Amino acid sequence: MMELYKQLPHLEPYGDLQYFLYVIVATLPIFIGLFFKKRFALYEVLVSLFFIVTMLVGGKTNQISALILYVIWQVLLISFYKRYRKQRDSKWIFYLVSFLSLLPIVFVKVSPAIHGPQSLFGFLGISYLTFRAVGVIVELRDGVIKDLTIRQFLRFLLFMPTFSSGPIDRFKRFNENYETIPERDELMDMLEEAVKYIMLGFLYKFILAHVLGEILLPPLKNLALQTGGFFNHYALAVMYTFGLDLFFDFAGYSMFALAISNLMGIHSPINFNKPFLSRDLKEFWNRWHMSLSFWFRDFVFMRMVMVMTRKKIFKNRNVTSSVAYVVNMLIMGFWHGVTWYYIAYGLFHGIGLVINDAWVRKKKRSIKNGKKLERVPYLRIAGFSCLAWLSPSMS
């Protein structure tokens, strides 16, 4: 079986024209079936498995075996907790199952920092699959998900268009969307939207990100290093160029994922909404990598606030939210990677959100015209956000 895997071509998701040709041809029958109110469930499974396998072949580690073990692990945890939750509700069992669900990604993130080489448990997309799996456990505990089958869970966990890098969906929304076949008018709107997303994605990822990341960034890095000093004008240019390169590359990828999701009859959540037009840092995180920031907001930040408020750890609710901001963003920094600059990135944004809230509270009475603040948001928000990316951009 492994020899058969090795013979398959490696297809980088949304990486070149060959991939788009294959994926559009493969998903076209799914769209046609939806047009006639049919879901070709078995065909969808085969298409998804083909593209997931071709994403993973050709890596340095045995990613396919790692994925199989990972899926079995998560299925066992979900099956156990689903049965347990129908009878009892111990918070310690919930914490234990959540921790065990997170354990593979913890190994993957920590292993390179300790041993150097990539973890044997790692595979492309493990972070985003973990967000989905843990989200299911949390929503089972909350009662948002009343029941689910293994088939439904696997369909959600292994949804091909968003497998490698999101956007991060929620099970209840996804499952309701999947089980409701859109009407023909809506399908045609989804097709039109898919074409728009693909065209914008090509502009963002293959033109703008290429110009910024491959043409402008390398000479700017050299000039910044040659100029020397702790900070200089070229370093400032590197900071903004890298931030914009990151945005256009990832936003372009997200648009491709939305387009292919549409062809499969699914409205995946958007990831970016003009983040550099935000009026403050808090709004920036409501516009930047939205599916990730909303996941952390709902499943980490809000739960920390509720626990600290219920246990009366801090008397002042502003202190409570400030601590939750910093811890939340630190965890997000660790998720990006166990390196000093990603940890600093999380701390930087956590403290920034605390300062942002304090400033808003202080100026709340004097701010009467919101539109006035919207005139010059780019340099302020982009500057603060890109500053946190300066260290990785210089590496």
From TrEMBL:
One GO CC annotation: plasma membrane
Coiled-coil parts of chain: none
Annotated TM spans: 20-36, 41-58, 64-81, 93-114, 120-138, 197-217, 318-336, 342-360
Pathways involved: Cell wall biogenesis; lipoteichoic acid biosynthesis
GO biological process terms held by the UniProt record: lipoteichoic acid biosynthetic process
Compartment(s) of residence: Cell membrane
Membrane topology according to the record: Multi-pass membrane protein
Keyword annotations from UniProtKB, A to Z: Acyltransferase, Cell membrane, Membrane, Transferase, Transmembrane, Transmembrane helix
Primary site of residence: membrane
UniProt-recorded Gene Ontology molecular function terms: acyltransferase activity
Keyword set includes Cytoplasm: no
Enzyme Commission code: 2.3.1.-
Cross-referenced NCBIfam families: LTA_dltB (TIGR04091)
Family the UniProt entry places it in: Belongs to the membrane-bound acyltransferase family.
Job description of the protein: O-acyltransferase that catalyzes D-alanylation of both teichoic acid and lipoteichoic acid (LTA). D-alanylation of LTA plays an important role in modulating the properties of the cell wall in Gram-positive bacteria, influencing the net charge of the cell wall. Catalyzes D-alanylation from DltC carrier protein.
Protein name: Teichoic acid D-alanyltransferase
